[in-house]
Amino acid sequence: MAETFEPVIIGFTCNWCSYRAADLAGTARIKYPPNIRLIRLMCSGRMDLTFVLKALAGGADGVLISGCHPGECHYIEQNYKAMRRFQMLQRALPQLGIEPQRVKLVWASAAEGQRLANEITKMVEEVRALGPLQWPDGLHPESVEQAAAQEVTA
Amino acid sequence: MSEQRIGVYVCHCGSNIAGMVDVADVAQWAAGHLKDRGVVIARDYKFMCSSTGQELIEKDIKDLGLTRVVVAACSPHLHEATFRKACANAGLNPYLCELVSIREQDSWVHTDRAAATEKAKAIVSGGVERVRYNEPLEPLTVPIHPATLIVGGGIAGIQAALEIADAGFPVYLVEKEPSIGGHMAQFDKTFPTLDCSACILTPKMVSVGSHPNITMMTWSEVEKVEGYVGNFTVTVRKRARSVNTDLCTGCGVCQEKCPRRVIDDVYEAGLGYRKAIYTPFPQAVPKWPVIDRENCIFFERGTCKACQKFCPTGAIAFEQQDEIVTINVGNIILATGFDLFDPRRIPQYGYGRLANVFTSLEFERLSNAAGPTNGHVVLRDGVTEPQQVAIVHCVGSRDRKYNNYCSNICCMQSLKFAHLVKEHCPGATVYQFYIDMRTPSKGYDEFYQRGLEEGTLFVRGRVAEVTDAARLPGEEGKLIVQVEDTLAGKQRRIPVDMVILSCGLEPRRGAKELAKVFGISCSADGWYIEKHPKLDPIATMTERIFIAGCAQGPKDIPASVAQGAAAAARVLGRIQQKQIALEPIRATVNEDKCSGCRVCNELCPYNAIVFHADRGVSEVNPALCQGCGTCVAACPAGAISGTGFSNEQIFAQLDGLLMNNISKSSVPA
Predict the structure, then answer these.
(1) Mean pLDDT of chain B
(2) Which chain B residue has the Cα nearest residue A30?
């Protein structure tokens, strides 16, 4: 491949902090690479791990989860639930043959546009270094997608 | 799902978006490649939020029978309401409109036009997929409690309380000190008019104290806030005053007789004394004193009771306990003010080590006729008038080591100090050491000119050090200000008698903890974050919680008053509506799917989920649910769905963002 690999990263952001941090980065014209595409949730606690798996199965090379700093959750303490789920996922990812570094949890308050931009820039570099997500033999993206969909509609 | 007819509208936002994203290409692409996904029309327009832009959408909804609308423009936090309203005007349920951001999250943050355009296409594609699953929703309405809680009895809180109370609605004003008044009560004069601070503040304080609609709770702190938008239940701890306020007449005999003198760190800024039983100042509102139990001899040793012996009405009540009061309010205004930057953090300025280095608040007290020196500006020895005074600007402000921000009031306060020094100590020389003079409000620059005319000397440069180590003749016994005069390009040593540090403003210590109690956020500096820095400086991201005065950022008295009044106006508008429409983002349990495992019950921070043991299912109370969605993500049976952010919507958006919708459809490349 002559061109450099451009990863696609899906970012799940919290309506109250990191989505606003992204807005702030925009208003302040802070630059970061265009590889990330954001989805707004009301809270990082809304983060269903199947979202992450579905993103990876659907072609994303990395997933960024971001929420309010511990103790600053708009919904009191739901970011702790996100943190727990993230820890669980970090253990599950290697078992699926996925480098755990492809999924990152970043706390960013509404005031931290610069921080979010820095984290995105860093993550794009890291995922670029990892290369495209190669699904191991025997684990077809569709089957993961199916399993994820099943879990949701079960 | 029935066939959708989707309209896509791509905004240029002048050159804000069009400068980095080929908007015409994005619209064309959407019309072609997303045709199979239900897009029947895609347009680009210079300003979608303009009335013409909105009419464009409304016309298409009517003429083309659109069932869904996607607007690709700025952040939903800016214009979601605008486009929802436009859809509603045309008869489309507003929640069938999706605003996706290609400005804040694309054109403004990227530098490669081709990549930004591709990203915009992905974002539009995500919006189109998501909107297919949007459901028509109706806002929930809940009644608003007519009472308001105001935290902080400084000038901003006082102004807000009076505005609301005068309009006929009940106000609870909670203040942690024994009296309202705040920092303004400590000042002698106010810039730029040199109004007597007490003369303009006291009448307002008295009005608050006597207002039938205001319940004052001084010597009190908010402990807990529960409930939901429009109906908060607030727990306030009223600390034991140890004085029966029904009997106390405020005569002050107790304060005269109390044998324990305590350095007054709050009101007198450490320069003067108060007693263990005290009102902070003579004009205090309310007039009732409090016993500071940490310093009271009776609470220390069990004897004394001097105050009790002399109290003519028998009002002293040592046995009083803290009282926990629960109040119900619909709106909350936080006006918690500021703390002064502690100049001990800059050791080279010598505060706390060199006697005649004063803080700005100390000087306020020195110059105040009701202060510890009866308004005589003297050195720490209490008698000597200073002949040379240095005023150091930006202490703890505009300094990367401490606070990056400008504290807003220091230039003007320093000019006021110079004037007061000259007034109190005729013939004194006053030096101002400044970085930049900032005097941008009404009458402020005129005051600066007046300072120049009065002969105050201005030296441009940040002071390096204040020392008492004399090196040159004439420096003995003086404080020497070492500074680089950046206009003269020279190092200077200026001997003076008194140094006043014009300290910056910092968020209240404890502001962050209080923010957590109320569920609002602080900026990196610790000030409370407003909803919008320009268009909504008094609201917070949390509905029904407003901010006023220095809690939001450093500001002077006129700005604090304006903000207090503005917050009150907003609250009054809300109360008049009697009910409030809430975003219908709520979780609901599908009882057929619920297995009754109760995983969700424990997760809900608002106790909005109740378990019906008889039916073996959980149910969400929509009035308590705030829509965070944690239970939706946690339900192992997939029985809980979240309106506005359903799994289907998010999965669809994911597919769209990853362009999986395109590869699967058979459209021309």
Answers:
(1) 94
(2) B109
